[in-house]
Predict the structure of TetR/AcrR family transcriptional regulator.
Amino acid sequence: MQPRNPASRTGRPRSAAADTAILAATRQALVDLGWSKLTLSDVAVRAGVAKTTLYRRWAGKNELVVDAVAELFDELTLPDRGSLAADIEGVVLRFAAILARPEARSGLMAVVAEATRDEALRERIRVSIVDRQKRLVIAGRTRAQERGELPPETDAERSARAVDLIFDMVAGSVVHRTLVSNQPADEEWVHGLTRVLLSGLAASAR
């Protein structure tokens, strides 16, 4: 995985294997040490690379940790289960499964907490994680429109607002359920969330 905002560098070509090892080591360091004790030196040792290798790729800890967390959510895909409701339930269950992993919980909670004091970090989270995952909402709506489950959008601005709202409702609900309330996002809960979401979509389409 390539860092989201790589600095312009010259020299030897990047190593995808090194990037993968560094991001995995970062996530494990967050689980073991937490944000405050995590250092690039420790990550370099865990990844088996020189510290200078990290600095050639990331400007500092903030950028590195966000990219390590973003890589987890890049694993998300939208399943084709035959209907909009089933597709939503499928992707939400996958999202909840990722959040159940210790490295995802530790990483996401750490960057969100640190971002309350760092505007640049908030922006990086938005670009690298939030905006990237809105692709799932766009893909899901397009598929539902092709099936005739949702009407086509003719207003681009309204469509963009709807994508933002749907993403916020789904992601916010799952994160709150799993990381704040510490309750399982099981099939029954996901089914209820999907039912509420679809009711809202139907009302907004009228």
Observations:
- DSSP finds nine helices and no strands in the chain.
